[in-house]
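Board notes (copied after class):
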Amino acid sequence: MILLALTLLGQGTMATAGDGPKPELIGNMGAAFAPENYPPAALRVREEGLVVADLTIDAHGLVVGCKILESASTALDEQTCRIVMSRADLFRAAKDKRGKAMIGHYALRVRWSLPGGDTEFHEVAHSGSTISELTVDADGRVSDCRVYTMPGHNVIPDIPCPPSVAGLQKAVMEHSGSRTPPRFHYMGFTDRIFDDGSVIHDEVPEGAVVLQRYRVNFAIDATGKAVDCRVSISLSGGGVPHGPTRCEAGRAFVKDQIMPKSGYDQVQWVYQILPPSP
């Protein structure tokens, strides 16, 4: 398996083209730089290293420029820019004092590592929530997909629907006791809370049923790594397994001035059976 380490700096510590308002990272950069995106040309000659780039983000939140400030190799540099410039769900545009969207810059650091290298994924330790929604028809067609973050109900634009959610459809069918695949609306809540903060989404939306709810508690060591992960499953149905814990994922947090000592992720999957399509 190819292992990729990714370091994100929200505000950036290097010199960029401006010191004004900064764009906000709202997308999953870890998913964007998944191991399968390691460039084949770099694999063949076993290239790895740190790429530092100054990204230009336009008023629509799109990456329109990618200037390499520190190079690892041509293949790794080009792949870094190719990935961020091909996605429309990573950033929210910077805003001026009047709240108008404007062009801004984002300092990105990506450490590409071959097998056996550093596998840490660094992110800022801020509490928040991500909510995903979709509708599944009885024939398996998926529609009305959207993802947004809280606080602020910030919608991530242009989220494509997955081609298939057969596992989720089967779980909902078994959990609901339906003899045939039902049409349903799904919502997934992931709350990441640090220290003694309260969970954001503990109540089930009206008319919805909990398919699964679990929590992963973890401590944070002096280097920012999540350690001592403990999974507690309060509700589980349909044989749905929980995802990898933060410890299993090898993730760490960027060291900040005030580093929390602990935290937890609470994941809740809910669904609501809908009338058949007309």
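Comment from the instructor: The first strand starts at residue 4 and ends at 8. The CA atoms of residues 48 and 112 lie 5 Å apart.
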